[in-house]
Amino acid sequence: MNIVVCVKRVPDTETKIKIGGDGKAIDPAGVEFVINPFDEYAIEEAIQIKEKSGEGEINILSLGSIDAQVIMRKAYAMGAEKGVHLNDDSANPDNLAVAKSLAAQLKEMSFDMVLFGKQAVDDDSASVAVQVAQLLNIPIVTRVIKMDIADGKATAERESDAGKEILEVTLPAAFAAEKGLNEPRYPKLMDIMKAKKKPLEQKEAQMDAPKMEIVEMKYPPERPPGKIVGEGVEAVPELVNLLKNEAKMI
Amino acid sequence: MANNVLIYAEQMGGKFRPTAFEAICQGKKMAQELGGKVIAVAIGSGIENPEALGQYGADKVIVVSNEKLKDFTVDAYGKAFADVAGKNDPAVVLMAATYQGKDLGGYVSAALDAPIAADCTEWLAQGGKIQVKRPTYAGKAYATIAFTGETAVISIRPKVFASDEPDASKSAEVENQDVALSDDDFRSIVKEILAKAGGKIDVSEGDIIVAGGRGMKGPENFKILEEMAELLGAAVGASRTAVDEGWREHADQVGQTGKVVSPKLYIACGISGAIQHLAGMRTSKCIVAINKDPDAAIFNIADYGIVGDLFQVVPAMTEELKKVMGS
User: Fold this and answer.
1) Residues B69, B44 contacting (CB under 8 angstroms)
2) Which of chain B's ends, N or C, has fewer CB atoms near its CB within 10 Å?
3) Is B204:B258 a contact under the CB 8 Å cutoff?
């Protein structure tokens, strides 16, 4: 079972976002960047599938600036063998251009499965995985919370508009991981050391010109200051009164 | 030049969902700006009353009906939708950013070679084109996006745009269209659909959410939140800590790695207010915080706060609500 996991470098979710001087992007200064949290579930799942089947290899694919290699090494420390970095400094806002570039690279790789996180927590679009699957003409299951592989088929469970659904797809296929799929491992120090020596191929990303642009980036409107109604149970009647008569919420 | 607005009219079990009406109402307004027609596309099997979409502003409804399309799968629905879109010269391809809509948007974007802006919360017409605003970084920032090229795919966040009252005097022209679907378009097979547990309201759908965090101390204590939620007809939400501790399931998580919600009323109990949590609920209309730490960050964005022990305050509040709501 050969698996490619696509990963993205994003700001840590605990980071405060500062908009840069051009008013069109965030200022990266002082921001801690991490591997996209949903991608960690994808990496962990790939490792578990490989451990179970006892064969195949895990390739990491990441598109972005040279710093993407830092998070690729983290995926290596978790258990991936090697990877390809598509170098791109353009911060292209068009996710279809990104998907095309990833799909072009994937066509050169051998895989039974391509795994993604369900969305990147920076632009929150949840589009690239589906776009890549369409471009590669393979099935995809998004937001996977449980999966089993057997006889060249995958059974995957996910939350849906109706509740939950169970889908079956034939491999090769793509999957986008949701939180809850597994518990990503913490790499051991020895694995972090080993990860530094694993092969990482760097290529220039082939990117289409974007068909969309960010005209402006702004902070959300500030919420007006609220009030502390009081302390303890004594404050409860007044709170409920305010909810009923001032906020008219109940 | 393309100027039509093509809308995915999402249905479930043959009935259109409220998000379909929201999308059509916005699509109608966009088409007015662009000088084009409003074309709704309904895909499925046994679709009821497609002509009624005219009451919300559709000029025409294209129905792709096929028994094989009973359940949504992105390949088959995407193929059908992209096929219709390709024949109707759309400037905008519009849908609600539901689970289906998010899958379908990505597929159609790639199939039509058109850019996508997902989960938009505002739009405007600028120089004869549509621009959108959408939250990024879970709403820590909002980006305004302009498109180049003929067609743009746009999905709008559910429940952000109110739909207009239906105009019962209007009816849309209905056209049935066959789309050739091969076995290759049914590579995903829906084996089972498990309906939501009876009575349970999902956090993404609740008008009121009662949420608990680290301060809940354990799964058994969520009972007091459930009691309040039942009284209010509310959903029960949870912070990342509560989910990571295994107290609640991930489907209940509010925040950057959970769900981004904007209910009318959000009652945060024992939630300190980590940045990733605030990002997920800061657009709630009214926020109430109950926390024993007066310096908790949640109080900075709460409209009303009580500093105190939630294990005393929450049950007392439920009792008080019973009194007030009964009267």
Assistant:
1) yes
2) C
3) no
Tell me what the pLDDT averaged over chain B comes to: 96
**Chain A, nearest residue to B232 by Cα:** A250
Residue B259 is classified by DSSP as B
Q: Give the 3-state secondary structure of residue B75.
A: helix
Domains of chain B (ranges, CATH numbers): 4-186 (3.40.50.620), 208-326 (3.40.50.1220)
In one letter, which amino acid is B72? F
Nearest to A249 among B282, B286, B302 (CB): B286
Per-residue pLDDT tens over the stretch B42-80: 999 999 999 999 999 999 999 999 999 999 999 999 999
Cis peptide before A172 (omega within 30 of 0): yes
Alpha carbon of B208: minimum distance to chain A alpha carbons (Å): 9
How many inter-chain contacts (A to B, CB under 8 Å) are there? 270
Instruction: Please state the φ and ψ torsions of residue A208, each to the nearest 5 degrees.
Output: -70, 155
User: What's the CA gap between B206 and A66, in Å, rounded?
Assistant: 43
ipTM of the complex model: 0.96
Closest CB to B136: pick one of A122, A161, A169: A122
Residue B277 near residue B261, CB atoms below 8 Å: no
Q: What pTM value is reported for the model?
A: 0.96
How do B38-44 and B208-212 pair as beta strands?
unpaired
Q: Which residues span the domain enclosing A133?
A: 3-204
Helix (H) or strand (E) holding A136, with range, is: helix A128-136
- Report the candidate in B54, B53, B95, B90 with the shortest Cα–Cα distance to residue B78: B95
Token code pair at residue B117: 């802006």
> Which token pair is B321?
């609500």
Other CB atoms closer than 10 Å to residue A198's CB: what's the count?
16
* Residues of chain A found within 8 Å of residue B246, distances taken between Cβ atoms: none
pLDDT number for residue A168: 98
pLDDT exceeds cutoff 80 at B197: no
Count how many domains chain A has: 1
Q: Name the burial class of residue B219, with classes exposed (0-12), middle (13-18) and buried (19+) by CB atoms within 10 angstroms of its CB.
A: middle
B96 touches chain A (CB under 8 A): no
> Left (φ > 0), alpha (ψ -120 to 50) or beta: where does B70 sit?
alpha
Q: Which candidate, B45, B54, B40, places its Cα nearest to that of B85?
A: B40
Helices (H), B181-306: 223-232, 240-244, 275-281, 298-301
**Tens-digit pLDDT profile for residues A44-71:** 999 999 999 999 999 999 999 999 999 9
Q: Identify the residue whose tokens are 């501790």.
A: B245
Considering only CB atoms, A247 lies closest to which of B74, B286, B321, namely B286
Q: What is the CATH number of the domain that holds A8?
A: 3.40.50.620
**Cβ pair A158, A167 in contact under 8 A:** yes
